[in-house]
């Protein structure tokens, strides 16, 4: 059954807002989102298969020529907008766009961890506003299914317990984001 959701987040300081539309279908999901920050505006679109593996990503900084287009096969192989192989992203299944809490939903949904379950993953990390794409190692641990997950950056010392709703959309990401709708 198809389902459409709308969510909005503010960053912790309140100077940016994101408006996201998520269309979920039995064969996959599509995301269309816009973020207006204090000194940037960003639009991104994602397509995922039914297993929440990213198949396509288009990210653009509004008012500039910075655009990132990626295609993933769901098994850790990525290409750029011209079909060129991105070997530096080998093994990444998920994408993590720095300016949004939504991309935490992708591994949470894909992994389907039970209470106490943990998984180390590699993501295609997109910095904002630079739109530089790098591979980063992360760990997700389910503290309370459908409610609380621990996020850890394995390439740094960043850790947060992320509260989610019944649809695994972030409600509170301490120090970074708050859901406002």
Give a quick summary of the entry:
This protein has one helix at 105-111; strands at 3-11, 17-25, 28-36, 41-49, 54-61, 67-72, 78-80, 94-97, 118-126, 133-144, 148-153, 159-164, 170-173, 177-179. It has 181 residues and is mainly beta. It starts with a strand and ends with a strand.
List the helices and strands and how they pair.
Blueprint: E1 3-11, E2 17-25, E3 28-36, E4 41-49, E5 54-61, E6 67-72, E7 78-80, E8 94-97, H1 105-111, E9 118-126, E10 133-144, E11 148-153, E12 159-164, E13 170-173, E14 177-179
Protein model, in words:
Helix content is 4%, strand content 54%. It has one helix at 105-111; strands at residues 3-11, 17-25, 28-36, 41-49, 54-61, 67-72, 78-80, 94-97, 118-126, 133-144, 148-153, 159-164, 170-173, 177-179. A hairpin with a 5-residue loop joins strand 6 (67-72) and strand 7 (78-80). The mean pLDDT is 97.
